[in-house]
Write a structure and sequence with these properties.
Order of helices and strands: EHEHHHEHEEHEEEEHHHEH
Number of helices: 10
Structural class: alpha/beta
Strand content: 15-25%
Largest sheet: 8 strands, mixed
Shape: globular
Length: 296
């Protein structure tokens, strides 16, 4: 007799580079026999969720793990227009080649990318149209990626107004809702084995980001300042945004509580440390395994 798989509505939150942890969570869910029936994501959650929804997550994982410092140098196209540090065209051209010209409404898994309408100052749920456009809009992190125009809307990072978009999954006919919060306040110290080769690669990739532009360097350095005396105006602005997003997240979750929350520590890596893909994937896998054991 065939046992029916537990069905899941998966909610993937925003949190910059910590979003790589979503890959490990998804892989662990599948390894435990869960069937992901719908996905809602903000920012990096939309990126990773979109790749899984179109069946290309493994290709994306192999790509990010295979990047070296020269690949990164070729992909980062700095913008000096004042609307964002990175134009994003080069990296999204590669992503589009992996995804293809896919429409959200044609995906085998229902998918919602949550973005923020910059002019109207409201959430935008993107549930149809080109998948690559929806991802590009949802991941337009303010000051980093330039906004994405879709029709007459200028869209930016969904995490601005909804860092953990549970609401789009409320009507789903699934056994449970699992949300992955990338900004959890976790005191536990997770011990990960990171191969020497990965640590060396991470270090080299970070160095080239430091060297390529003063703006990017400032963004990376902001993650390393821990005392008030070290902070400047931009550090305070960044931390203020974090506080606002945490407050928004708590309010949203009060209205729509998921069945399981997989909490990725907010200090697991810096928001802009996209060179740490390997360890974030492994951390997501480890923490998901813990939560799934507790839910049995």
């Amino acid at each position: 007799m065939k046992v029916r798989k537990q069905t899941v509505s998966l909610v993937l939150g925003s949190g910059g580079a910590r979003g790589y942890a979503h890959i490990g969570v998804i892989e662990e869910l599948l390894a435990h026999g869960y069937e992901i029936k719908s996905i809602s994501g903000s920012s990096m959650g939309a990126l990773i969720g979109g790749f899984h929804a179109c069946g290309k997550l493994n290709a994306f994982k192999e790509w990010v793990l295979g990047l070296d410092l020269f690949d990164v140098a070729k992909l980062v196209d700095f913008s000096f227009t004042g609307t964002g540090v990175i134009q994003g065209d080069k990296v999204f051209h590669v992503i589009e080649k992996m995804i293809g010209d896919v429409l959200i409404e044609d995906l085998p898994i229902p998918f919602t990318a949550v973005a923020t309408d910059l002019i109207k100052q409201k959430e935008a749920w993107i549930q149809e149209g080109r998948l690559i456009d929806a991802i590009r809009a949802s991941i337009a992190i303010p000051t980093v990626f330039t906004p994405k125009k879709i029709a007459d809307r200028y869209l930016i990072d969904g995490g601005v107004l909804n860092p953990l978009p549970i609401a789009p999954t409320v009507a789903d006919d699934t056994d449970s809702t699992i949300a992955v919060n990338l900004c959890a306040k976790v005191t536990k110290d997770y011990q990960l084995h990171i191969p020497k080769r990965e640590r060396e690669k991470e270090s080299k990739m970070q160095e080239i980001f430091f060297e390529m532009a003063q703006k990017a360097e400032a963004l990376f350095e902001r993650e390393k300042k821990s005392t008030f005396d070290e902070m400047d105006m931009f550090d305070i602005m960044g931390r203020t945004i974090d506080i606002m997003q945490n407050a928004v997240r708590e309010c949203k979750m009060a209205g729509y509580a998921p069945d399981i929350i997989v909490g990725i520590p907010n200090n697991a890596c810096g928001f802009y440390e996209f060179n740490r893909a390997y360890e974030m994937i492994e951390l997501g896998r480890m923490i998901a395994r813990e939560h799934l054991k507790e839910s049995v």
